[in-house]
Amino acid sequence: MLTHPLTLITFIPLVGMVAILLCPRALTPMCKWVAALTTGLQLPIAVWIYAHFDSATSAIQMVERHQWIANYHVYYFLGIDGISVSMVLLTALICFISVFASFSITRAEKGYYALLMLLDTGMMGVFVALDFFLFYIFWEVMLLPMYFLIGIWGGPRREYAAIKFFLYTLLGSVLILLVMLALYYYGDAHTFDMTQLAARAGSYSLTFQRICWLALFVGFAIKIPAFPFHTWLPDAHVEAPTAISVILAGVLLKMGTYGILRVNYPILPAASHELAWIFLGLVGTINIVYGAMVAMAQTDYKKLIAYSSISHMGYVMLGIASFTAVGINGAVLQMFNHGTITAMLFILVGVIYDRAHHREIDGFGGLAQQMPIYAGMTGFAFFAGMGLPGLSAFISEVLVLIGAWQTHPLMTVFGAGTAILTAGYLLWCFQRIYLGPLNEKYSGLTDLTLREAFTLVPLAAIVLLLGWYPHAILGLIHTSLDHLNQVVVNAATSATVALR
Amino acid sequence: MLNPLPVAFIRWIVVLPLLGAAINFLAGAALQKRFGRTAISLVGCGVVVGSFVIAVGALAGMLQLAPAQRFMLDDLWRWFDVGPLRLDIALWLDPLSMLMVLIVTGVGGLIHIYSTAYMHDDPAYWRFFGWLNLFTFAMLTLVLADNLWLMFVGWEGVGLCSFALIGFWYRERSNTNAGNKAFIVNRVGDWAFVIALYALFSGLRAVGHPTLVIRELARYAPLIADHPGYLGMSLVTFVTLFLFLGATGKSAQIPLHVWLPDAMAGPTPVSALIHAATMVTAGIYMVSRLNFLFSMAPATLEVIALVGAATALFAATIGITQTDIKRVLAYSTISQLGYMFAALGVGAYDFAVFHLMTHAFFKACLFLGAGSVIHALGGEQDMRRMGGLRERLPITFWTFLAATLALCGVPPFAGFMSKDGIIWAAFSRGPLFIWALLLTGAGVTVFYMFRQVYMTFFGDFRGTHEQEHHLHEAPWPMASVLVILGTLSVVGGFVMLPKFVSDFAPFARFLDPVFTAPATHSLMATEFHAHLEVYFALLALAVVAVGWILADACYRTGSLDAASLSGFADGIFYRLSLNKYYVDELYDRAVVRPYLFATRALAWFDLRIIDGIVNLAATLTVFASWLSGLLDRYVVDGLVNLAADATLAAGGRLRRVQTGSVNAYLYGILAAVMLILVIRAMVRA
Lengths: 500, 685
What we know:
Low-confidence stretches of chain B: 520-525
Number of strands of chain A: 2
Largest sheet of chain B: 3 strands, mixed
Shape of chain A: globular
Low-confidence stretches of chain A: none
Oligomer: heterodimer
Structural class of chain B: mainly alpha
Mean pLDDT of chain A: 92
Order of helices and strands of chain A: HHEEHHHHHHHHHHHHHHHHH
Largest sheet of chain A: 2 strands, antiparallel
Strand order of the largest sheet of chain A: 1-2
Helix content of chain A: over 70%
Strand content of chain A: under 5%
Order of helices and strands of chain B: EHHEEHHHHHHHHHHHHHHHHHHHHHHHHH
Radius of gyration of chain B: 38 Å
Largest interface: A-B, 61 and 55 residues
Strand order of the largest sheet of chain B: 1-2-3
């Protein structure tokens, strides 16, 4: 029986980081195993959380609440509900996988794994913190290691990409910080407690809500990333090492939409209902279509996958904007599914980059002949990305679109139609890299190693499982999300009544 | 109907092929290396034959039940449970899905057996059977699904397998191009399909019965009969139109027919199984499955009848000029599917399904016969380099001929029973021009089919000596399958005889419980001139005879010059037909190229404009900080330095005042006192 599962799962990586830093020089090759052990310990805790999570209630669970800075009402307040639980699982899984995807890193391993562990803590913290102040701290903690991981271990333009990522995200953070302070000082009872902030949602004036909502939206939209704030992402992905791309796309992007569900929706419900259709619905639809079209024109394998991420995150936004239980559940499931599928895709790009040292789509050809298992695995991931029925993304995209049809049929038509465009760019890419006659230059390439297979197979298994039994995640999240959706819809109704 | 019999065996029909696919994909390469191709054959064919055996058992069980109770349900697990959406992974066996299962596993099983010989020398033998098994699984999921989303799983699943098998020989660029084209064109249809489901679900939700379970739909659909829809249509019309657009993708009808001829790039058994007998009939199945819904939308039925009949003639006219043995059959398939849709459109659901079945027999036989020819000629597909194969490939020839006669609608072959029924239904229930299109199409069909038979099997051999030397009849797995399918092409239609011959129609009686909804669509009063049917059958036969005489004159006796026919009216009709009416070119210019241009333009926009703004902001910030640096250095710091410099300079100047001369000091003091006094006086004043 675990008494502090959330503290444990959040801070185990920090302990791992200390252990890595204390590692004597002679034992540097052990660093990766310390990291593997650390994330390997996180996994059973995640499983424990999964098993002990009560899906029948929308209340906060596994709460840990201690006063931290008394003068400013700051609490060390952790807890999870249906909105965050799937993200906690995803983070634990992706971090574990990404450690093994990092084994090809040889330069300054110690620093790399130490930063990776710090990043892990930051991400996990964002998903479990319920005190806005604490949330913000974790949000910033995660930023710093990411900057160094791209900036030191990245590709040729790593410094440009790292600074772009850092400054762009920081811009968003400042806006979030301002709203946090505004919410804190609103009214007499000062608090950073998100549940209390949400409880008094009715007292905020609509103008105040709108301003806060937009500022928060920009802050979170940069992270998603929503059009037109997305251009840092392709650069960051192209320069980042494989495992960092996996984390970036697998977990980090989810923080944007998570933030909207955690902060915008419960705390500013009336503004959410008013503004979501344009800033989440319309922008999300633009993300879907625009990302798919721009992906079609890419010549760099990794950039293509990066733009497909932008496209797929659009479904999350559209689902959130639907104000239906089906759509919002689909959105959170899509966050999870995108995490696993995109992680696969970036690992697969890394596999070929490690061998051929370039990513030009037209520079390959016929790899299926030389690397059949690799090609088969890529095919699986590509079709998962296309939302093929029987695989997980199908379920979430369909739920999103069923929900969205209720509120925004025209946007749904575009969102559904993009499935054609997605098939276009992924099949074309697959054909150019894996099919056709074998490019003789690559007749010496070896198929997937056992380690690479080990990073891909669990993800593939989850993708397949969730295609046929989505209840494994939906069952966990739906009570909280139904409730959240009701809160927003009710707030909108009462706001309309008040106006009359 | 609403209380189906719960059973637990249907799952095995579906699971067996899935198991075969799993074994072949995960262990196939190793099995093939260790135990040879026989192990793969055993697994690959065994699972499908196993499914067929279970299906036959199920049929026997079903026939024990009273007709109105022939509904069995195998409910496996809860799939979705979100908000109002509740769907199960559940398989539903009723007479219609029973029939489809028998076709899929029966004809499919035969084609699996045929493939063991046809694909024997392919190194990726295991991969072929893996995909073939997976296809069978997906197709069975499609037909057995108890709700529309599960049906869609099968719907796209067969598309995936079709894609993979078209591009099976992936080293050839044109093969993978064809695969991509098939998948993407199908996705256009799939898009329409899902839009229909969203709209339908939304409408049913509005009346308090949110469901997509087919048997519940049958019950609640009447509640949304008058529901307003979108684009100025009623909801039912909107939904059925979009469903039909989805069907045009999978079943290769105008305007989404373009992928099927290219799909012939796949191995021939694939063409037989997927692109003739089973997958392409999914659209027919879906419309007949949802006949209660379509019957509520007369406008949609008219569109279906028109599109089907137009496609039937359109594709047939392309078939007459093609020279690739498989492409002729591909256009024939498109054309025959058009007949089925025309039947659906005039509400003759039973004849559509009947033709689906007979077509599965004879078209599979034709494709496999073509495969036998290609096999014998070492991969040759051009009919201009064939000829005279009658003597060397007798089994192939006679089965091919039987299937051809069936396709042409010659009595008493299977195709006559079904196709004649369709043409009659079009006349008796639909507008006259639908009937005219179908009748003309029947004549053209005979022409292109006998053109094919004569070019392939008659005359002198026109291939190389090398090919002639190696000519051989199909090995037994292929030959026996041809014989079985050839036999079915002859006798397969006896389950439903024309009304003017006999009332014997167990096929229609079997399906009756499925097609309960009255066809509201009937532009002409139907039954009173039923006695005319026999004359119309004779008329159709006369058309068949004309087609045959023309083909015979052109391609066997040579009494009519085909070349001069093609030059008719400056050869414009010939060129149109040969180039498939330039539809591919039209799509390329109107859709593909503009889209590719748009993607490049957007990528430029993204890189130069959006990211350009970001970089500009960064540059401006750097510039601003440089400016403020300048300001700092020259203005802020400059002021400080200025003060210092000024003090210093002032000190330097003032130093000169200190001359050491007492006189000068005294003048200075006096001047100062004077100045003060003057200022005071001025201030007082």
